[in-house]
C-alpha cells in the first residue's frame, strides 16, 4: 500500500528469502511487513530500526525455531 508516495505495507511472504538487504531501511514509513513462509534465520539491524513498524510477521521461518529454544 502507498500513502503519500511511501510504502506503508509490504508482503514478501513465500518467496524463499534467506536474508534482506540493508537498503530495506529506506522504507522508513513501513507499518506492516509480512515475511512469513521464507527461510530467514535472522533479522539484520535494518529491520529492527524501522521506527514506524507496527506489525512484523515472521511465521514459518527458521528464525522462529531458533529463538524458541530460549523461551
Which features would summarize this protein structure in a list?
71 residues, alpha/beta, 5 strands
Would you mind describing this structure in some detail?
With 71 residues, the protein is of the alpha/beta class. It contains 2 helices and 5 strands; from the N terminus they run ββββαβα. A 3-stranded parallel beta sheet has the order 3-4-5, with no helix packed on it. α1 links the parallel β4 and β5. The radius of gyration is 12 Å and the shape is globular. The model has no long low-confidence stretch (mean pLDDT 86).
Distance between the termini: 34 Å
Largest sheet: 3 strands, parallel
* CA-atom Rg in angstroms: 12 Å
Mean pLDDT: 86
Structural class: alpha/beta
User: Approximately what portion of the residues adopt beta-strand conformation?
Assistant: 15-25%
Number of strands: 5
Element-level helix/strand string: EEEEHEH
Shape: globular
Count of DSSP-assigned helices = 2
Low-confidence stretches: none
Helix content: 10-25%
**Major β-sheet strand ordering:** 3-4-5
Could you write a compact summary of the structure shown?
It is built from two helices and five strands, in the order E-E-E-E-H-E-H.
